UniProtKB/TrEMBL annotation:
Coiled coil: none annotated. The keyword Calcium does not apply. Keywords: Activator, DNA-binding, Phosphoprotein, Transcription, Transcription regulation, Two-component regulatory system. This is DNA-binding response regulator, OmpR family (Rec-wHTH domains). One of its GO terms (biological process) is regulation of DNA-templated transcription. The modification 4-aspartylphosphate is found at residue 51.
Length: 219
């Protein structure tokens, strides 16, 4: 069952979303950014429904933080009808939006579209700098040569390939792959990164590099 995160502070709207979506999806709810951000780091979701006008951390800030490490589909709910503002939110990484009050049937349809699109993207092969990663066959080739990766190494490489040249903090990588707080996990991540570098280094090119004091990227 697909997992949805609903970030909405209006209890009536949250109850409505639960009534409509809960029969078909596993739902987790948050009423503000302080609740939502840890959930995004610690758990895995297939879609987030995000209200923009939240107490404390705004929906825009949640979206900005999310897009630093994740391509999770985001459907924005907003009472703001200004076209420039909506365009800015879409440009910041939202996948779709609905203005309040919204039609329930349209909401359900848009949720299905985003989940269907996500499935299509998740099964498409990635090709970056001679590395080809195929999620359907769970295979990786470097310059045409097949290499064997563990499940975590595969997920780690997929994350980096989905965001080539982007620098990831190690804490964000760990939480995105292991779905738990970073804490004292630096050694675990370093071991996986070392193994991944070694396996990718067929042509003596350094694909995974460290940026001192910042994190790791795929180049």
């Amino acid at each position: 069952m697909k997992r949805l995160l609903i970030v909405e502070d209006n209890q009536d709207i949250q109850a409505l979303l639960r009534a409509v979506l809960e029969p078909d999806y596993q739902l987790t709810a948050a009423t503000n950014g302080a609740q939502a951000l840890p959930l995004l780091k610690q758990q895995s979701f297939d879609l987030m429904i995000l209200d923009l006008m939240l107490p404390g951390v705004s929906g825009e800030s949640i979206l900005k933080t999310l897009r630093q490490t994740s391509n999770l589909p985001v459907l924005v709910l907003t009472a703001i009808r200004d076209k420039e503002h909506i365009a800015a939110v879409l440009n910041a990484g939202a996948n779709d939006y609905l203005t309040k009050p919204f039609d329930i049937d349209e909401l359900v349809a848009r949720v299905r579209v985003q989940l269907r699109t996500q499935h299509t993207h998740a099964t498409q092969a990635l090709n970056v700098e001679g590395i080809v990663l195929d999620p359907q066959t769970h295979t990786v080739k470097v310059d045409g040569q097949l290499i064997e990766l563990s499940r975590k190494e595969f997920e780690l490489l997929a994350l980096l390939m989905q965001n080539p040249h982007q620098v990831f903090a190690k804490e964000d990588i760990y939480q995105a792959i292991w779905h738990e707080p970073y804490l004292d996990a630096e050694n675990t991540l370093n071991v996986h990164l070392s193994h991944l570098r070694s396996k990718l280094n067929i042509g003596k090119k350094q694909y995974v590099t460290s940026v001192w004091g910042i994190g790791v990227r795929l180049v």
